[in-house]
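User: Before I run my own analysis I want an independent prediction to cross-check against. Here's the chain; please return only the structure tokens and, at the end, one sentence I can use as a sanity check.
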Amino acid sequence: MENQGRVRWSLVAACALLVVGLGGCPKKPAPSAAPPDPTLLESFDYAWARIAEVHPYEDMRGLDWDAVRDRHRPAAERARTRAEARLAIAAMLAELGESHYAVFSPEPVRESTVADAPSSTPPADHGASLDAEPPPERELRPPGEVVEDPVPSSLAESESDSESAKDVPDAQGEVGLEVRLVGEAVLVSRVLPGSPAARSGVGVGWEVTRIGGRETESILGKVPAGLREGSGGVLLQTHRVANRLAGRVGSEVDTVFHTPDGVQELGLVREQIGTTARFGHFPPISVRLEDALLADGRIGYIGFNVFMPAVSAQFAQSLKAHREAGIEGLIVDLRGNPGGLAGMVMGLSGWLLGDRGVSLGVMKTRDTELNFNVNPRARKDRFEGPLVVLLDGLSASTSEIFAAGLQELGRAVVVGEQSAGMSLPSLIEVLPDGDLLQFVTADLHTPGGLRVEGAGVRPDLVVPLDRDSLQAGIDPQLEAAVSHLSTLLDAPSSD
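Assistant: Structure tokens:
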């Protein structure tokens, strides 16, 4: 399509009819309305056709896609603004009932413009595997401490769309809070050391009741019907809150918390936290990796918040330090990790599995199949001891591929909560009106043929979060992981 990728603005004139008296004035012709921007309807038609072209199943999994177009095209024909066209496309995408279908504005906004459909999800996945040499030596850091190492130059050069933080003018500002939906309450599950929230004294377990003058209950909003039965709704609602907390670096957000000692009102100034990187059409992404030695040094811990190129080198360096410290068990924490580059699972799993050709999953397009085969490292560099992967309802996409594959192969025990069940690989393209369309290009199954989409990864040990534990400074999921590994390590040898 000739207009694809071009940004156009449509100015729609608004006029008011002033009636003087009770009808004694002569009537004048109403001013003609500005003609509709043709790219709005072109965007709807392009989205419909593109999805029909690349959907993994030719029969659209039984959905009458022609009928879906007929239901929603009239709304697109009436659209006079990008926002109106976006709503028509979003309603069409919602009928697919699966993740990684979305339409959104390219402009950074605090109120998410991603359609609140089953498709509303953080970063899409792409089938790329990017690895690089580890950065210089660094010490182990405790969980929660932010890694501020810049993206290694070899990584930045290996992917033209990735940049280090210093090259990203619109880096995302954060306040240093992680939140989780516990029951109907939004609770602080983590406060990053040294962050604005930490300096202001925000405590774990506090309930967030208002952000920027808006009640948290209204921010959570409704969960689309397609997500109500799974944990994908938890991810969507939690990210709505996180989006309100984030914003332009240097801006302030007013927050209200309910604490064990009463109500706290705080103005938190957003700062850049961690390494900021770009990839494709995504907004700036904050990348953080944390590591530590637990249980008197017997158990290593590595947690990271997104599958982006910067993680590969940092993971390798952390694991090397853990091995040199003599760990006997390992925890990989993917809680809150929404995914990223799907192909990275092949490289990262190679530090934990030694069998070349073993697959973590199969990605199927309409015409082809791609196995996410493990890329083993040298045996002296791998960790082959007991392994736990931590998941929760905010773990999605590439996190689910990684965890489900390791779980089904018997390599890892999964602890925590059921993942989001939003695992479909996708692409993002620019629509004729300038908006961005995210759409699925393939389906994904575990090595044994199980479909993660809609089902999620079910933990071997289910451990929910609760308010009392958080307020007591206890991470029950991490403690359960440590306890499980300690039991295995202390068990009598069968030899």
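Sanity check: The chain is about 25% helix and 20% strand.
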